[in-house]
Amino acid sequence: MAQTFDVCIRGAGIVGRTLALLLARERLRVALVAAPRAESSQADVRAYALNTNSKQLLESLRTWPDAPFATAVKHMEVHGDVDGSVHFDAGAQGVEALAWIVDVPALEQRLAEAVRYQPQVEVVDSPVQAPLTAICEGRASATRAEFGVDFDVTPYGQHAIATRLRCELPHGQVARQWFSPQGILALLPLEGADGHSVAVVWSVAQADAAHWQSTDEATFTQALSEISQGSLGQLQLQGPRMVWPLQQAVAKRWCGPFPGTTEARTPTSWVLAGDAAHNVHPLAGQGLNIGLADVQALSRILQARGDWRSTGDLKLLRRYERERKAGLAPLGLAMDGLQQLFTRPEAPVQALRNWGLRSFERSGLLKDWTARQAMGLPR
Question: From CA 162, how far away is CA 45, in angstroms rounded?
């Protein structure tokens, strides 16, 4: 007898696999569509900053990477392009860490292993029929385009460059960020408490991206050393340079009836989650946190639906859409505003943003509220 499924998930990245495991834990039968990956000789240098909520979610699924693949951030420094700066401290917030910098390949491996041993999840190589199709294919989702969903994209005119560095000085579990005329540079601690390696995310002007991707190592690391004011000593490139364009984007619709069906029939629906639904600037490291919050909300709503309701019930999916759009809107506006503010070269704007950083550093309750929001903690 042919296998029947409650949900078909298109996209087997971090968001798709996490959703599959969450739904399987609720005894739903899940088909996970995993397209074959092309073999690459290039090391994956990506790393994500995950907050407390994301960590607890992944720990509940037993997929949190082992040390030193998840480095706790004890301090955070944000520097303006003149004299403005903001500092966050985990101890002052009464928490173990402000965030964790997680090695992407290690996390993907843990999720893949968990899926392999979850009997409620079947990995398939093409979409199958189910009452609900969850689209977790990322920002370039082919299914979203196929279904005719408008994806409102605002290009930033910037590209992100990601790589790894070996540093002369230990990072001290400090996440460092600089807003500079050369772009927004983040150096994120890796390899545990005593590590000397950092993940780099450097947002540069689109016109400069090709140069910084291909220039020689000495020129590249010298530029990073100058922006970071030599804070970690001599820098040595430790991996390839990955580059991608930056944008803010959001889908106009996050759910709907499957093409060719109507709501009057047995519900057969689709829903978006993760980067297929929204993109934000990486300057606050919240992209994956938002995607994991999506699947957590979707799983919770489906779990509470009652046995008489289909997983494809559009009333439930619209509840998810409203909840997540409301949660995304203020963060998206804040990230877009900061990006726009720190890419303006005019002297009055420069003075305003550095005054703003200095004022925010002294703001007390506002600074604490912002820190707890970024950590995914109750306000």
Answer: 7
